[in-house]
Amino acid sequence: MKLLLVEDDKEAAGYLKRALSEAGHAVDYAAAGRDGLMLAAGETYDVIILDRMLPEIDGLAILRTVRASGVQTPVLLLTALGGIDDRVEGLEAGGDDYLVKPFAFAELLARVNALARRPPTQEMRTELTAADLKLDLMKRTVTRGGRRIELQPREFQLLEYLLRHAGRVVTRTMLLESVWDFHFDPKTNIVETHMSRLRGKVDRGHGCELIHTVRGAGYILREPD
Amino acid sequence: MFRSTSLRLAALYTAVFALSVVVLGVITLISTRHALSAQFDARIRAESAALVQEYRSEGLKGVVDALHERDSTPGSLDFGLQGPGGAPLAGSLAATKAAMGWSSMRRAGDAHGESERLYAVALPDGYKLLVGDDDERIEALDGAVMQGFGLAFLGVLVLGVAGGYALSRGVNQRIAAISGAAEAIIDGDLSRRVPVRGSDDDLDRLALTFNRMLDRIAALMESLKQVSNDIAHDMRTPLTRLRQKLEAGLAETRAGEAPLEGVLSDLDSILDTFAALLRIAQIEGGARRAAFRPCELAVLAQTVTEAFAPSAEDQHQSLSLVVEAPAVIDGDAELLTQMLVNLVENALRHTGPNAAITVKVARAGRAASLSVADNGPGVPDAERERLFDRFYRLERSRATPGSGLGLALVAAVAKLHGAEVSLAAAQPGLEVRVSFPEAA
């Protein structure tokens, strides 16, 4: 994937650029807001990673300009401001996701991947599938190998999120935000608990497991090769 | 001296009173004089009428006799009788020239220049009768009135200045006491308070308000100090561990191993503490109130209970929700959720296995409440108050993980919503109740 990183802290940017390249991405880098703006308007990227607090031009101002010029590239905002209002403001300015510093690199990578492969048009799908697992969005039912699986509402949402991001790592915070709408970090392992129940229902008794734990990062739903 | 407000006020009042005395004096003088002149004129008129009558009945001789008799009576009016052509005949005014009717004149040769009020009337046969009254008595009365008011004026001035001085001295002393206390506090003596007399007057109330403000400032300073100490402790402990692990990690890396995972978790705990502190500060700043929307507490409570019930079950605890009545309040759903999560996590963490935790949404009239009760070991009475302080942890909980900021955040969110947090023993266990104000 081709990424644009706009970040004024050279050391952090250098580290991110190297790590993203190692993860197989091509990274363009701009330290100043103006350069970032030029690149964002001129080139085509899969995802733009934009620091919110930049010298000269505010990251949000760049974002608004980019959006106003019709660029639809997904934008992941990075910020040291963790307030609720800051997040809402960032999303309203046209950001697609928001990550508060400091963060684990795995978290950034998972979010970049989730953003990049978002289908360009939100086509109406009524069924999500992976191998012999079927999730019917209309009837709200789940079957595996033709056998019905009874899920709690949150478990259904968890599975739906995993299926929509099949093949990509989803992190614990991504799940907390999208399934529970919790924008803070509970001390209790609620994601793990719900996930282990979901896996018990979806994978137990089946020869191949679909949901996997990715150490230090999160979970992934993957079709067997 | 005149920079004292009370003295200036006293001077102003004195001036106003003195001026009133002068105005009152002038009015009294004018009206007394008016009344007296009318009375004297009436007397002159009556006398002249009597003498005219005398002339008619007794003739010239009768009038002359009457004049002589009157002249020898002290305190009587002045008279004069003139013959035809103005020849003086009798009485002290016999030589005085005056037109007919009312007139006034200066008595000739009188050093004081006393004036005389005259009334001239024609007698038959060309005779002319003059009746006059010197203004001496009116002037004497004027003098008396003026003297009276002059004394009153002086009295007002003396009393005003002396009273004003005394009053302003009293007020100044009390203001000096307040300002002295403030100076002492500026110099660092935070325990100083403004003296209160207990008279409940305006200055006393000011002093009381001032003292309450000082109590609040002192409490804030104390909590700031406490927080700095706590931050120092709670940040340094994991930072020390971090350093030790990094050292060990470096040593082991040289030896071919890389056990740096513990380092990350220590770092994360420091960052968590930081994030919680910042968030509490942000909430206490109160800026979030703009984002208030109607929230259904029952829905919010259900989300949280459902999220945590499986974790509770895994620890052999039970978490249940009781909705006595739906309760919509104006608030920040995200913060309220976090508040409830903190309360539930607190209950889960500090009660043992087999504990039953109940989240309850209730409403009394228009006031909603949200409570979390457990049947765990509870909290000793003495420690309850401090539970909501930042970093406060029960002695027995020191060993369990947690930042000690959870309940401080609960308190901050509740305060932002105008809600009250109360702790009660729940026979056994602890019940934390957040009571929201009545909906508008």
What would you say this structure looks like, in words?
- The complex is a heterodimer of chains A (225) and B (440).
- Chain A has 225 residues and is an alpha/beta fold.
- In chain A, helix 2 packs parallel to helix 3.
- Chain A has a five-stranded parallel beta sheet with strand order 2-1-3-4-5, sandwiched between helices.
- Helices cover 39% and strands 22% of the residues of chain A.
- The model of chain A has no long low-confidence stretch (mean pLDDT 88).
- Chain A has two domains: 115 residues, Response regulator (Rossmann fold); 95 residues, Orthogonal Bundle (Arc Repressor Mutant, subunit A), CATH 1.10.10.
- Chain B has 440 residues and is an alpha+beta fold.
- Chain B folds into three domains: 137 residues, Beta-Lactamase (2-Layer Sandwich); 84 residues; 147 residues, 2-Layer Sandwich (Heat Shock Protein 90).
- Chain B contains eight helices and twelve strands.
- Chain B is rod-shaped, with a radius of gyration of 50 Å.
- Chain B starts with a helix and ends with a strand.
- In chain B, 27% of the residues are buried.
- Chains A and B meet through helix 4 and helix 8 of A and helix 4, helix 5 and helix 6 of B.
Assign a percent range to the helix content of chain A: 25-40%
Provide the succession of SSEs of chain A.
Answer: EHEHEHEHEHEEEEHEHHEE
Q: Provide the number of structural domains of chain A.
A: 2
Principal-axes shape call of chain A: elongated
Mean pLDDT of chain A: 88
The chain pair forming the largest interface, with residue counts per chain, is:
A-B, 23 and 27 residues
What structural category characterises the helix and strand content of chain B?
A: alpha+beta
Largest sheet of chain B: 5 strands, antiparallel
- Residue runs with pLDDT of under 50 for 5 or more positions of chain A: none
CATH class of the largest domain in chain B: Alpha Beta
Give the helices and strands of chain B as they follow along the chain: HEEEEEHHHEHEEHEEHHEE
| Count of individual beta strands of chain B | 12
What is the CATH C-level name of the largest domain in chain A?
A: Alpha Beta
Helix content of chain B: 55-70%
Low-confidence stretches of chain B: 396-401
Indicate the CATH topology of the largest domain in chain A. Answer: Rossmann fold
The portion of residues forming beta strands of chain B comes to 15-25%
Strand order of the largest sheet of chain B: 2-1-5-4-3
Content of β-strand of chain A: 15-25%
